[in-house]
Amino acid sequence: MAHDLDVTAIGEVLIDFTPGGVSQQGQPLFERNPGGAPANVLAAMALWGRKTAFIGKVGEDAFGEYLISVLAGNGIDCRGVIRTKQANTTLAFVHLDASGERSFHFYRNPGADMLLDISDISAEQLTRSRLFHFGSVSMSAEPAATATLQAAQRAKIGGAIISFDPNLRAPLWSDLKDAKRKIEQGMEYADIVKLSEEELHFLTGIADPEAGVRQLVDQYRTPLIFVTLAEQGCYYRMGVQSGQVAGFAVQTIDTTGAGDAFVAAMLHQLIEVGWMSGGELATLPSMVIHANAAGALATQKKGAIPAIPSWVEIQKLAASCSS
Questions:
Q1: Residue 2 within a domain
Q2: What is the DSSP letter of 88?
Q3: Domain range enclosing 292
Q4: How many domains does the chain have?
Q5: 72 falls within a domain
């Protein structure tokens, strides 16, 4: 079947309640923002003109309806989003420290996203896209864990390039050994992997990006790996190509969605150049600069989807990079 979509993502879509100042009584106010890493990636790519589709589950409640309306309003195909009466839409309260770094408090026991079953997903949904993206949050509970891994496997068999962002959220796992096992299973299918420094250390026990990535490539033969290093930029490896690109110093307000903006920008560019798994790319350092720019710009506004920069803004910041 022809790939009529650029990217399909599976996983969690939820409500991020982000700090919104204080009330007249001095009580903290929280602002309702759409969230969930896979949905954030799609929203960015849709904004930049890609054809996208989402597979997931929400509660049959006001929050679920709001999320579907946001996804659809951002141009994302929502035919793969299932409503359930069995659980409420997942909520995450985001707490920000003075530097904009966040911590999460989840209301998800269970949340609707955890109840996604492989029987909810049609074969057609997994074979329509050139690229398939997933993370580990949807693997933190059954039946969504099995559904996520089986969907990735079927998409790969169908010829899709597989993108994986482990996106470890420790509070969501009852057992971090299980988290590591599930992430390792995800690595088996992945052509593209984006890790943070903490996730690289979690998987390999190695802090040094070059040595840690070498171990992963030896183990999984992953064609393309990125390790984001916050303000220090990003280390990348594609076959024999490797290097580190510096980040951008910006006034950070909220880091929510920065990693998702990086992933989206990278996937957007890989689709643009028609990259096939295993291929080499002379333009890779420039592409990483653009992805770093996307991630940096996304930290300058609150929330994830509302903070997505335009591609023109990304190009402008990337052009300011002297390297």
A1: no
A2: B
A3: 8-319
A4: 1
A5: yes
Please identify which residue in the block is written with the tokens 């904009």: 100
**Residue range 66-70: mean pLDDT, rounded:** 97
What are the structure tokens assigned to 96, written together?
């920000």
For every residue of 5-58, DSSP letters joined together read EEEEEES--EEEEEEEEE-TTS-EEEEEEEE-HHHHHHHHHHHTT--EEEEEEE
Continuous segment of H or E residues that includes residue 301: none
**Is the pLDDT reported for residue 117 higher than 50?**
yes
Q: Model confidence over 289-306: pLDDT tens digits?
A: 999 999 999 988 877 788
Position 16 confidence tier, pLDDT thresholds 50, 70, 90: confident
Rounded Cα gap, residues 165 and 160, in angstroms: 16
Report if residue 3 sits inside a domain.
no
Contacts of 128 (CB under 8 A, 6+ apart): 1, 3, 4, 5, 8, 53
pLDDT in tens, 83-101: 999 999 999 998 877 777 7
260 domain-assigned: yes
Read off the CATH number of the domain in which 306 is found.
Answer: 3.40.1190.20
Rounded to 10 deg, the angle between the 258-272 and 284-298 helix axes is: 150
